[in-house]
């Protein structure tokens, strides 16, 4: 056995629970043991500290419960003895609301007709008071009420499936033309809505309930009231919850009769003496009114009719252009991803947040690390509760910075874990009146350097990292592109466009997108050819997130002007952009789909072809193009020309290598000049 194999066996530790060798073990601070991914938590490896924690937790809960009961009792006592001003104000407001409600019920009782539910309730109260010789029944309070409720628990009827803690015991009367009111005892669930209580009591009292029918007449409806007499009578809203309206010992009345409506008064602009009275309706009542009484009974119907087609059109357009949403879920704990463009505060930030919240370890590449980037990193760690997020300096427009990061990543033994790389960066210069050529540090056009040369250089150097992953690990390379690649021109002779005359930034932007996409297809083929049996599967995917309200779109529309950004983008065009473009969150869904979909797994690759040679099957993986969370076909003929892709890849690699030679000589010359100037300044300082 070679020394290299011996050193590889020394990596990692055995799990103290299952004795499995793990290269990234987890350390338990309680029992001082090392465990694998499957037994990293205390519950899974039966940590010895669990018993002590449970006992201490029980003691603390008992002590807090005792103190809490004492505290609550003291607060209630002092509130009654010396209530605070705020407590008095709240009590006064509640009493005022109850008094208004009682006065309203009294006025409705006096003005109600003989067919209304309130009139029937009034007659019931009168008969009930005559039975007691005109005296009102005394309300049960305090200890007597507790005794009565305890008796009701033995005799009350109800659904036995309701938990005892949720039961509310009450009396109920059925007030109908064909029934003699009888006092009955029931218990209901406190989490029910009042409408369900009404339906339940109607069944128990054998009352026909047709409230939910569309063609129900007004005199056949059932209403639920609460109270002991005319003063305390209250109509319960069916949308409220029981625990806020009904309590133990309350008396309920299920009354059949006509509905008494609340009216709202609105002054018209044409005639101040005329008024419109509107009846509060549910949507079904509005539809029923249109069907039986006509549209004239619906206020502002003509305005709604004219606005409805426009609102419907805007809603359908927004639904069509909003894009699809990722439906796949994946556990990313322990996985390592390299991301670019994570500080865009749009699509890239949403992708980084989603991956970090799922437990992935992220290596974020940034042009420079400053105070703002450190604050961004700390905020991302707090929001996702993930400390495994790190910055690495890598300027994608600088070939030397890209090589410096890539070689630093590769300079590690054993090879570092890498589950994927997501390139979301990009540069879009203004299109209109763009006569000046903006160059990078390397002398290339800034869009070619950032969007094409830097991305190509990074992926090309990191090929050994992709190939060195174990067979149970699948590496996914995701490169974002845009619709402008369909307008791009492929320059095989000069892929870096260093010898071309600058005639507009749009031409360079589209060329950088199409050339990077073609090189990604060739990269996928090269990874397939050099794949070994003991290495994992590597897939390269091109993702079009769609037209988003991103930094690049703002810069193109405003043409780099702050005034145009405010007037044209923020005020004039933003309503249309909101309808026809995506947000950063929606744009990130296609990238998350490419990262989590099982269609790219080695077992379920649907876009792969099986070539049978000599009774052996070789899996040939092709790069996919994803848009709106679906696999699409390439439109341009260049994506089918493998010879063109191979020439473009080789020529780009050669030109970048030659350019790096020239830049290295320049850096050495500048370094020598800096050293000489430093020596001269030191000698002058010594003489002085």
In what order do the strands lie side by side in the largest sheet? 14-13-12-15-16-17-20-21
Q: What is the CA–CA distance across the termini?
A: 66 Å
How many runs of DSSP E, i.e. beta strands? 21
Q: Please, how many domains?
A: 4
- CATH superfamily membership of the largest domain: NAD(P)-binding Rossmann-like Domain
| Alpha-beta classification | alpha/beta
Number of helices: 19
How would you characterize this protein structure?
The chain has 688 residues and is α/β, with parallel strands linked by helices. It folds into four domains: 11-47, Zf-an1 domain, CATH 4.10.1110; 49-82; 90-257, Ubiquitin-like (UB roll) (Roll); 336-546 and 583-663, Rossmann fold. Helix content is 45%, strand content 15%. It has 19 helices and 21 strands. It has helices at 3-9, 49-81, 85-111, 117-131, 142-155, 194-204, 242-245, 283-292, 301-321, 347-357, 371-384, 399-410, 446-461, 463-467, 505-529, 551-558, 562-580, 584-596, 642-687, and strands at 13-14, 21-22, 26-28, 33-35, 167-175, 184-189, 221-226, 234-235, 251-257, 263-267, 275-279, 336-340, 361-366, 389-393, 420-423, 475-480, 538-544, 609-613, 616-620, 624-627, 630-632. Helix 10 (347-357) crosses helix 18 (584-596). The longest helix is centred in the last third of the chain and has 46 residues, at 642-687. The radius of gyration is 38 Å and the shape is elongated. The two termini are 66 Å apart. The model is unreliable at 1-9, 80-84, 261-282 and 606-617 (pLDDT under 50).
